[in-house]
Amino acid sequence: MTESRDCGLDVAAYALGALEGPEAVAFESHLVACAVCRDELAAFEVLAAALPLAATPVEVPRRLRRRVLAAVRDEAAAATAGRARRVPRRAQARRFTPPRAAIGLAGAVAIALAIAAGTGGLGGGSGTRLYRAAVYRSGAAAQLRVAGAHAELIVERLPAPRTGHIYEVWRQRPGHAPAPTSALFSVTRTGAADVAVPGGVNGVSRVLVTQEPAGGSTVPTSAPLIVASL
Amino acid sequence: MFRPAKATRPDLRLLADEDLMGSVRDGDARAFEVIFDRHSSVAFSLAYRMCGRRTMAEDIVQDAFLSLWRSGARYDRDRGSVRSWVLGAVHNRAVDAFRRDSVRPAVDVGGDDASGRLVAAERTDEQVERREEASRVRVALGELPEEQRHVIELAYFGGFTHTQIAELLQLPAGTVKGRMRLGLAKLRIALGGRVEVLT
């Protein structure tokens, strides 16, 4: 179906998240120059944000509430315990792990910095470590947040995967090939994603992200876009 | 004998979301509990509407809220309300799950099949007000011409792209986009300025 481009038609589809990846990127470029579309989009995005209210109310299962709040309380308690044991900040600063991971992908070097959680964010407390990842996409950034057994990859400004493709998270143990995980993801319109790393990172030396055909792959079919070295 | 007044902690339930998020950033689990209780119902309702499966909806909502807890420092009030953040996280995770697992609800994602659903009891004035707001959105959406409502629901609740919808409905892609635009324009008129306070 070949159609001439009508930017007005794209506004609603974009607001509803219904444009394909390349179309969305093209429309975002168009928005820079088209005030009419920007205004209409602002109104439509408010409407799209209200659509969840149209869902028939369903009571939250008690087990869900218990699970979420138990996890939060456990992490808060662990953070409190960690703070009690924490050494003074000045001494801690001297103990930062120096950059140590050089990786040979496209000649780039991944810098892994273990950062005390107090400098990086909330919730994890001093048990949280942040690892800055090497990202092979201009303007994009990523970091791996590790809190106890939980690891989460936080991605910003990453372009959407190609049509028919998805991003896949891999875990790699020293001396082993990357192993696939069940974490497949796309990104928001701003290129953001928060992705849990299934299985955590115990014994794992690197967490990688590749672009794979929809449904994921069992072995990487493209070079890593993101590499977080622990 | 004079007794100094005890320093009492304010009732967290009286605080606005944005103020609670300040405490959440400091690792306050009680503040997070208030956030969860305020927004989990609409979040779970959205997830269940999109997935049609309780366990999948629970996993998505759990993941979204734990993400808020663990990355709350990155929450920026200038970019939207806490509720918008949570609902956006639920929506994105559901769409990701559809595309990852090729698991989708039935194509008719607009159904109001109430079987197995339990409407939450109204407990506070605030909840009553929110349910009235939600009712306005449901009514406005329900009053759209069916062909417009259908493409909007397929896109938003079903996570389908306009080309997928065009294939499903055997329509030109331009027609699908046009119906989406007409539908949203009518919703805008129907909800008027009220929609600004809904999100």
State the gist of this model:
Chain A has 6 helices and 10 strands.
Describe this structure in words.
The complex is a heterodimer of chains A (230) and B (199). Chain A is α+β, with helices and mostly antiparallel strands. Helix content of chain A is 31%, strand content 23%. Chain B is mainly alpha-helical. In chain B, α2 packs across α4 (82-101) and α5 (125-142) crosses α8. Chain B contains nine helices and no strands. Classes of the chains: A alpha+beta (230), B mainly alpha (199). Chains A and B meet through α1, α3, α4, β5 and β8 of A and α2, α3, α4, α5 and α6 of B.
Could you list some keywords that capture this structure?
heterodimer; A: 230 residues; alpha+beta; 5-stranded antiparallel β-sheet; 6 helices; B: 199 residues; mainly alpha; 65% helix; 0% strand; globular
Distance between the termini of chain B: 51 Å
The low-pLDDT segments of chain A are 87-126
Secondary structure: helix percent of chain A: 25-40%
Strand line-up of the largest beta sheet of chain A: 1-2-4-5-8
Question: How many individual β-strands of chain B?
Answer: 0
Assembly form of the protein? heterodimer
Largest interface by residue count? Answer: A-B, 68 and 89 residues
Q: Which range does the strand content of chain A fall in?
A: 15-25%
Secondary structure elements and pairings:
The complex is a heterodimer of chains A (230) and B (199).
Chain A: H1 7-15, H2 21-33, H3 35-50, H4 62-85, H5 89-94, E1 115-116, H6 117-120, E2 128-132, E3 134-135, E4 141-147, E5 150-156, E6 165-172, E7 179-185, E8 193-196, E9 206-213, E10 226-229
Antiparallel strand pairs in A: 1-2, 2-4, 3-10, 4-5, 5-8, 6-7, 6-9, 9-10
Helix pairs in contact in A: 1-3
Chain B: H1 17-25, H2 29-51, H3 54-70, H4 82-101, H5 125-142, H6 146-156, H7 162-169, H8 173-191, H9 195-198
Helix pairs in contact in B: 1-2, 2-3, 2-4, 3-4, 5-8, 6-8, 7-8
